[in-house]
Amino acid sequence: MINRRNLIKTGALAIAGLALGTSLMAQSKTEGRRVGIIGLDTSHSIAFTKVLNDANVGDTFANYKVVAAYPQGSLDIKSSVDRIEGNTEQIKKLGVEIVSSIDELLTKVDVVLLETNDGRRHLEQALPVLKAGKRMFIDKPMAASLADAMVIFNAAKHYNVPVFSASSLRYIKGMDEVKGGSVGKVLGTEAYSPCALEKTHPDFFWYGIHGVETLFTAMGTGCKTVVRATTTDTDMAIGTWNDGRIGSFRGLRAGKPNYGGTVFGEKATVTLGSYNGYNPLLVEIVKYFQTGIVPVQPEETLEILAFMEAADLSKKKGGVPVAIDEVMKKAQKQSSKYKF
């Protein structure tokens, strides 16, 4: 039989339990979903934050929110450095805390977007994130060299933390249908994008990577050789795949800048549509944050970077074909010197 004192005690415990349950439910909505940004020297940092932190975004991004950012990205690329102050003020208005170091950032977040525009800094900025065991997306370029990218992937394997990098042009309109088999086997692809150059980076790493990633998204891995023709206004890099297929990237530095391509398939030839915005990429990033399953395999990312380095080497050699294996072996030798 329950007396009055026990009844009051039982009721109090029930209320406390209900409050605790409510508290845990509220916590579960944000636990594991705190996003941190490294690098406010790019428009991507602001664009991603506006999407993720939009109060009306619904469940599209599983309640992942940017909560903290470390501003320092590029050090000596003026066009990037000049953005940091303005972007820092913008992101503050979106409810994001500004921190003074990557170490401090890692105490406040669960996952990381490495957005620094300068690919040369990605290795040094990625390592503490991986060491802390936090999942991380690295914006283009993954690094400013194939060797640095290999070190990052080696570190990810060492610390047992998956990592990936991608351009939003991987999700250009029409690509989903191509990947879904609408044209049958892809026999060849011609992709194009703006290709502004930055003296601190290999030629295609700075901006041409967008079109190169479109090319590889359609063609897949297996490129054997690359040959490049270049002028002041245009680049053309042609890759021959192991199975005899040919794919090309056209880099634009004159006329109206645009993104696109043509995919030649067994069943049809299709023209890829326009740029599809950041949301398709962000959806994949959030899925990866949740599951740890990367949407782009390291082998493909490394081959994309090898294609771009091979194109640079072809240019230096006067337009002769350069073997992807040659570039890979050199980078593997360089990256193997790095120990964890």
Structural commentary:
This protein is of the alpha/beta class. It has two domains: 30-168, NAD(P)-binding Rossmann-like Domain (Rossmann fold, 3-Layer(aba) Sandwich), CATH 3.40.50.720; 170-276 and 296-335, Dihydrodipicolinate Reductase, domain 2, CATH 3.30.360. It is built from eleven helices and 13 strands. The strands form two sheets. It has a seven-stranded mixed sheet with strand order 12-11-7-10-9-8-13. Strands 3-2-1-4-5-6 form a six-stranded parallel sheet, sandwiched between helices. β9 and β10 form a beta hairpin. α6 packs across α11, α8 (203-219) packs across α10 and α10 crosses α11. Residues 1-28 have low confidence and may be disordered.
Short description:
With 340 residues, the protein is of the alpha/beta class. It is built from 11 helices and 13 strands.
Features of the shown structure:
340 residues; 43% helix; 11 helices; six-stranded parallel beta sheet; Rossmann fold; 13 strands; alpha/beta; 2 domains; Dihydrodipicolinate Reductase, domain 2; seven-stranded mixed beta sheet
Q: Main sheet?
A: 7 strands, mixed
CATH topology of the largest domain: Dihydrodipicolinate Reductase, domain 2
What structural category do the secondary elements indicate? alpha/beta
Based on the structure given, which CATH architecture of the largest domain is correct? Answer: 2-Layer Sandwich
N to C succession of SSEs? HEHEHEHEHEHEHEHEEEEEHHEH
Q: Tell me the fraction of residues in β-strands, as a range.
A: 15-25%
